[in-house]
Amino acid sequence: MTSQSADVQLRDPGLQAALCAAQRVVVFSGAGVSAESGIATFRDSLIGLWQNFDPARLATVAAFEQDPELVWGWYEWRRMQVLAAQPNAAHLAIAALANTNLELTVITQNVDDLHERAGSAQVLHLHGSLHQPRCHACGEAHRLPPEAPREPTGGRRLSPPICAHCAGMVRPGVVWFGEALPEHSLQQAFETAADCDLLLSVGTSGVVYPAAQVPEIALRSGAAVIHINPQRQLLGIGREWALAGPAAEWMPRLVKTLLSR
Ligand code: OAD
To answer: Hey, what domains does the chain have and what are their CATH numbers?
Structure first.
């Protein structure tokens, strides 16, 4: 994206008006927001995780019960990648929005902690977190070693830790296919989406439900929605714009515009 093409896209009068009027802002993020930190997305061709790994063998309760070492080792590999990564300009720009008089809610489908490490507090994680494993048997939270090893395990099989409470097997704290999303976070996400006047949908394919309802709810409730994604995406519902390009380039521009109103 050249800065000239970005300026042309940003100059759209409807988009400018939406940015000027915004008071209650929701950022709804997906894997694309972390792409420039070196974390793989799921569905991008060639490099997406689900292009190279079978979700049925890695991201279901049945897969964990059948082969816990394979599943735990794969999530530990991903966790190590996240620990070695740094927040990028998009995460930082989003965090900067909190230091304004806007009412900001950050809702993410991501299981990394890069929003938090950039400075965003109280992020709603709709798909759980790599960093909050729990017991598969009793649900007790499991504390990971504070000084986690930083070398990626290369996807080696690893035995899951044992729960200190009931000696059950510890599982990754992410939401797997077929599982319910954390009820409280999902409800809060839907309510905030229904009540916002601007939603920035950053780096998501928007194909996984119920999370994908968040921008739909915002649009149907009359909010403006801006999609930030190298792949042009519009839902065709209401007042929406697509800004084509990487989040780490767009988010600082958008935030600068919001701050200079
Ligand atoms: P996807 O991999 O489905 O989509 C990532 C999106 O990010 C795509 O639309 C890309 O075009 C876009 N993208 C790639 N690079 C980008 C960049 N630099 N800046 C902005 N956008 C970029 O990931 P999600 O939409 O997050 O669920 O996937 C939703 C859920 O599906 C995930 O939370 C995960 C997965 O199965 C669970 O693990 C439960």
So the answer is: 11-38+87-129+180-261 (3.40.50.1220), 40-84+134-171 (3.30.1600.10)
Alpha carbons 234 and 250: distance in angstroms, whole number: 17
Nearest ligand 1 atom to the CA of 233 is 9
- Whether the full predicted model's pTM is greater than 0.90, yes or no, is yes
> Which is the closest atom of ligand 1 to the Cα of 206?
25
HEC readout, 27-72: EEECHHHHHHHCCCCCCCCCCCHHHHCCHHHHCCHHHHHHCHHHHH
Between residues 86 and 233, the one the model is more confident about: 86
According to DSSP, the residues that pair with 169 across neighbouring strands are: 162
Q: Is the CB of 199 under 6 A from ligand 1?
A: no
Active site residue 165: no
Pairing of strands 198-202, 224-229: parallel
Give me the count of residues in the chain: 261
8 A C-beta contact, residue 127 and residue 181: yes
What does the pLDDT look like over 143-172, one tens digit per residue? Answer: 987 655 556 556 689 999 999 999 999 999
